[in-house]
Amino acid sequence: MQQPGRAAEIKANGIGKSFGSFRALDDLTLDIGRGEFLTLLGPSGSGKTTFLMILAGFVQPSEGRLFSDGADITDRPAEQRAAGMVFQGYALFPHMSVEQNIAFPLKVRKKTAAEIKLRVGEMIERVGLRGHEKKLPAQLSGGQQQRVALARALVFEPGVLLLDEPFSALDKSLRGQMQAEMKRLHQETGTTFVFVTHDQSEALALSSRVAIFNHGKLLQVGRPDEVYDRPANRFVAEFLGEINMLPVKGVRPADNGATGLCEDRAVNMRCKAEEIKGDAILAIRPEHMSIAPEAAAGENGIAATAIGSTYLGAATKLDLTTRQGAKVTVSVPNEVAAAALSKGNSVWLTWPAEKGFLLPEGGQ
Amino acid sequence: MRGTLSDRTGAALLMAPLLLFLVLAYAWPFLGVVKWSFTLPTPGLGQYGALVSDPLVQSVFIRTLRIAAIVTVVSVTAAYAITVVWVRGSPVQRVLAEFCILVPFWISVLTRAFGWVALLSNRGLINTWLQSIGFISEPLTLVRNEFGVVVGMTHFLIPFAVFPLASAMRSLDERVLLAARGLGSSRMRTFWTVFVPMTRSGIIGSALIVFVFSLGFFVTPAILGGGRSVMIAELIYLRIFQSPDWGLGAAISVVLVIFVGALMALLFRHVRPRQLV
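Structure tokens for the assembled complex are given below, as produced in the milestone run.
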């Protein structure tokens, strides 16, 4: 984090943090690549913010070491690490104008007046705050304050930008706009971004990788599609979105994965050899299941009865019960849902073999 | 929601006795003082004219303003340091600071004034000690002058200066300070460029309170000034009980009350009353 203009590479090695008897973070080992956009995702109290504060240097880890570009920075105070940071609620200096806020990190670094003027001007242009230079934070909208916070954190070209739930105070449309803007800033600056959120859709939309936390433990880290399609455990699967879970019996190896009995019908699934162990939970995302009048032989399918629906505009969420009483939700086109409900009798739920996976318990 | 109508009616009823007391014991008699200022010894504006032309009255006014200004600067500066420790220090520091702030409240102003005389007089503790270590040969004149008055008044007023400052420091968003450090600012720089400016309303409130209080001091300057540093309140007392020149004393009172009233109005434009306690 010490070389301006160059993205930092960070290694966390066995980082732990206790506050009294509360274990906020436990044995975290994680590599953050140069220029990557990593999202720390988890419910409140999961340890994601604690880790961000440790990265910033505001919280000292109880154990473990932290490295930036190979140098041990565990004991380096926050002001010498100089990671750019955007706080929840922005934490702008209320007594300084937009310009003065953005100039602050440059003044601290004793840049010449000419350089400060130039770089602050560029930054104001980049985040679209031209015309607001002399205003105080209190005179700006939430989105504009957010832009000042981003500009202030990026103007000194830090090796890493840390963002603590920066969009939590914004309304939905503005959120989308700011997310796009942040993605653009990430591409333009090439800096390493570490972003904390509890909003899974935000995490999936923005990141190059997502790290999912719960109860102080890192449960899984991977590309958004990896963690969504192949969650490591039940917590990750459920946290990232709705998921259907069906018990399968007698799971045994087969071509391309495994086969087992789901509601007395043979189903196939993709899985690793070590996951195969008799009875298990088969997990399928609602949008990967479809409704069919019947399932062909050899196709994955179970019989179910439609019991209710929620209209979502672009699609309908259909609730069903299987013959053995499992609750299933599918996301289907509106007319398919209407047809399934009007029939009032049983339909078939089908899904491609590669969309079903075995789910270990855990992570809760 | 600021409270329902019945809440406000209830509050007004609870405050009524106090208000009645203030009107009867303070506002009503003061109207008499206003009347004296225009009628004694002869009706007219003569007392106010004398007030402007009398060099003694003028010098007392100027001295009062000067002492009040010095006491304000010293008290607010000292209070600021104490409040930082009280609000942001370690648990032990907090308890110590609280003790130092509250103990003076339990000791009467008279006792404290005489305590300072005992410390500061020619044969007091400080002079004796400085002479015994050979630091000075002749005793320093620390009391019966403006220095003594400033010391005594500052000691009295620091706790009053603390409360508005504490209120401002407590309401400050901790993340803003973290942000400054995260952006590379040292603790010292963060203190001067972020912390102090962000407690500005507390500083203004604190300064105005101390200044207003200073203008009306009577016991402390009378004892520690030893008659040589007469301030306005003492002058009013002398005019009314010793001269007796009731008209002039009343006119000085009226001017003082108007001046203090104006400062209070200024104070409440900057801070909410809630912040002062």
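Chain B has one domain: 53-276. The mean pLDDT of chain B is 88. Further analysis is deferred to the final report.
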